[in-house]
Design a protein that fits this description.
mainly alpha; 15 helices; about 300 residues; 434 Repressor (Amino-terminal Domain)
Length: about 300
């Protein structure tokens, strides 16, 4: 199916368009489905096209396109997804991986996924991301993976990191246009991790896995000492999980993963003075929660 591409939108405000506004993404859309749908919707909204114009250029019915862009109904087949990518000039290769992961999330069978993929001919789109993106990936893969493994099992952490870099590839022009690529990227990684992390009833991410890893590495041989360590570690990690997001991230990167403040600033894309301040307030909060009688700096992290 041939499609007419739309040129990339100019930088600046979002163009207006006649007709009904695009509705929100359906609540039934899974996290990975939503992850690729959001940048696709953003590209559509920035393009200035209407649903009707997108239908004319892609060859797909307006109703099908509207359902796809809202995550309504059945999980979309690759053929129609690919058609919209071509019109909106969205990179095909990272989107295809994200589409496949979301299809599995939607309980589609591998045969169904393979059948969809085989119906669309390979494109001439670059199969590798831009060089700047590749360099960014090499620089940040290790700290991103270490952070993800604090909250997730290894295979889930690895999947979250792969999805992060694919999403950044999709949004690379947007990242480059931001004030700081590193600061732009961190929330993308954090969202992919937190979408997978187990959360307690009050909405905080659980750190039990990290707590028991800490205990396992403590080399304590006395049973009473190990039980005391378990109780102390669980209380500490529970308190850490309830920190505001910036403080939680700094504590994890600094005190659980052993990065110094300069390295943490490089990972988060934040000024080092902000890292110093955030760490200080986080340790004060933890001390108040765990040991009200202690000095604010005496945090057993």
């Amino acid at each position: 199916m041939s499609v007419a591409a739309v040129p990339p939108p100019p930088d600046g405000g979002q163009p207006g368009r006649p007709g009904r506004k695009l509705g929100p993404i359906a609540e039934t859309a899974g996290p990975t489905h939503r992850a690729w749908l959001e940048p696709l919707r953003a590209r559509f909204l920035a393009s200035g096209l209407t649903i009707g114009e997108l239908s004319e250029r892609s060859g797909w019915a307006k109703s099908k396109i509207s359902e796809l862009l809202r995550g309504m109904g059945l999980y979309p087949r690759w053929e129609i997804t690919f058609g919209l990518l071509q019109v909106l000039q969205v990179p095909t290769w990272p989107m295809r991986r994200l589409w496949m992961a979301a299809a599995l999330e939607a309980h589609k069978k591998p045969d169904w996924i393979d059948g969809c993929i085989q119906k669309v001919a390979l494109t001439t789109d670059p199969a590798v991301p831009p060089l700047e993106h590749q360099a960014f990936t090499e620089l940040h893969r290790a700290p991103y993976t270490a952070y993800a493994r604090v909250f997730l099992e290894d295979h889930e952490a690895d999947e979250a990191v792969v999805e992060t870099f694919d999403l950044l590839w999709l949004r690379w022009h947007e990242a480059l246009a931001s004030s700081d690529v590193v600061a732009f990227a961190w929330p993308v990684l954090r969202e992919r991790v937190m979408d997978r992390a187990y959360h307690s009833e009050d909405g905080h991410p659980e750190l039990t896995h990290a707590a028991f890893n800490t205990i396992a590495l403590s080399h304590l041989t006395d049973d009473d000492a190990r039980f005391a360590q378990i109780a102390e570690s669980l209380a500490l990690f529970r308190a850490i999980s309830r920190l505001p997001a910036p403080q939680l991230d700094v504590i994890v990167l600094t005190h659980l993963l052993g990065l110094d403040h300069t390295a943490v600033a490089d990972v988060l894309g934040a000024p080092i003075a902000a890292i110093h301040s955030t760490d200080r307030y986080a340790r004060k909060t933890l001390n108040t929660a765990l040991h009200p009688q202690n000095d604010p700096g005496d945090i057993p992290v």
